[in-house]
Design goal:
Order of helices and strands: EEHHHHHHHHHHHEEEEHEHEHEE
Largest sheet: 8 strands, mixed
Structural class: alpha/beta
Shape: globular
Number of strands: 10
Strand content: 5-15%
Helix content: 40-55%
Length: 438
């Protein structure tokens, strides 16, 4: 069921996927999926059949989860290890081949994040709907409390500030080790989660069928929350090798007088690196200037008019996640509730690692997006608000790990919120309010 090429676009460095193929009604969408099954002979192949199943069907996800554990994950780890050993002795052609291999493999790995790790929010959606229907009057503040601390995080040398290879890794720079703090925090959140589980079970006492349904939904949601965190944390396993290989290629181009500095290689195309001819320093410099301008832009959540079916599907899902706000005041921005709780503080807009040093404890972190390299800021932040993202985004996962409220996918936080503004972030309701309210 491939998407047409026209449904993919890269605009000012941001990737967008089009929805032109999506019909205007759910019934027609079912028809398209069924025709895809028949046209591709999916019934003769388990893999094809699984691909045609609705993405929230657990059976299809389990098949991909098994394949990920059995083949994809061990093969990816082995390839990264092999390429790491080959890198130091490889010449330029082999270095290009090495980068190609790892990039292709990372692409397949990412596909499994979407299918397997992506089921985390779908299973959580089912849990959220159950809680809204059957636990609305219980002591459970938000269903999100039930999926906190499902996996103990582990710092890794492949943690990144950005998926852009140009950015140095945290392991290449001085960074503080917060391992002990991390373990203490995880235990505190585990206790908080268990208290939420107890509140839910108490509310369902005397209702054995509902209790059984709750336990089943809870088990799957917690399982896939942990799987998602594991998959996402390993996605950048190859990034240190990418950085080393490209550094060596850059040094070779400097030696051949194609570039003035090795880091300019990040602004060349693959074809230009392979050709390795001419003076490309000016070309790289011009592209770096464009990149600097583009990276300061805040991307819209969508381009053009919204698709009605997509909007309906997204609204239904977000409304299921959204709890009633526990605060009052003028609403400044609204997004997806992705980590529960309420926090108050002053805004600090951070655009990249260069702004990390100015971030103070107790401030509200406001950013376009965050990556694992931003994690030290979460230890100091009172809450997080981002322009982009969903419950699968890094900001959502790490905010839950740190037990701080988060609102993501606002589309306009970095434009509307300014340094020093006093705001209240309600991560359970997915709103940001002006000032400090009770």
């Amino acid at each position: 069921f491939p998407l047409p090429d026209r449904s993919h676009a890269l605009v000012n460095g941001w990737y967008f996927q089009g929805l032109g193929w999506l019909p205007r009604s759910r019934l027609r969408l079912v028809g398209i999926l069924l025709r895809g099954v028949l046209a591709k002979g999916a019934f003769r192949s388990r893999r094809r059949l699984v691909l045609m199943m609705p993405p929230n069907l657990e059976l299809g996800v389990r098949a991909h989860q098994d394949e990920f554990r059995r083949r994809v994950q061990p093969a990816h780890r082995q390839l990264v290890e092999e390429c790491s050993k080959r890198e130091s002795a490889a010449g330029p052609p082999e270095l290009v081949e090495l980068v190609d291999q790892l990039a292709d493999d990372a692409g397949e790995y990412f596909w499994y994040i979407g299918i397997v790790g992506g089921y985390a929010w779908k299973s959580e959606l089912k849990l959220a709907r159950f809680c809204r229907r059957h636990l609305a009057v219980s002591d459970l503040a938000s269903h999100q409390e039930l999926v906190l601390a499902c996996r103990e995080p582990e710092p890794a040398p492949h943690t990144v500030f950005s998926l852009d290879w140009y950015r140095a890794l945290p392991s290449e720079t001085a960074s503080s080790d917060v391992g002990d703090e991390r373990r203490v925090r995880h235990e505190r959140l585990r206790v908080r989660r268990q208290a939420a589980e107890s509140a839910a079970r108490a509310a369902l006492a005397g209702q054995p069928k509902l209790r059984q349904r709750f336990e089943a939904l809870l088990s799957v949601a917690q399982e896939f929350a942990a799987v998602r965190e594991e998959q996402v944390s390993e996605f950048t396993l190859a990034w240190p090798v990418f950085r080393l290989a490209l550094r060596r290629l850059g040094e070779e181009l400097v030696r051949r007088k194609v570039l003035d500095e090795a880091d300019e290689i990040y602004f060349l195309t693959r074809g230009e690196v392979i050709a390795a001819s001419g003076d490309l320093a000016q070309t790289a410099g011009t592209r770096r200037e464009i990149w600097e301008r583009h990276r300061r832009l805040s991307p819209p959540l969508w381009l053009g008019p919204e698709h009605p079916l997509w909007r309906q599907m997204m609204d239904d899902q977000v409304d299921s996640f959204r709890a009633a706000t526990a605060t009052s005041g003028q609403e400044l921005v609204r997004g997806m509730p992705s980590s529960p709780g309420v926090a108050r503080g002053r805004v600090r807009v951070v655009t990249g690692p260069e702004g990390f040093g100015s971030f103070q404890a107790g401030e509200i972190l406001v950013a376009q997006a965050t990556t694992p390299g931003w994690t030290p800021l979460f230890a100091r932040a009172a809450a997080v608000v981002t322009d982009t993202g969903s419950v699968m985004a890094h900001a959502s996962l790490v905010a839950r790990e740190y037990g701080i409220p988060a609102v993501v996918g606002t589309g306009e936080a970095t434009r509307k919120l300014r340094d020093g503004m006093l705001i209240t972030v309600d991560g359970s309701a997915g709103v940001v309010l002006e000032g400090v309210r009770n």
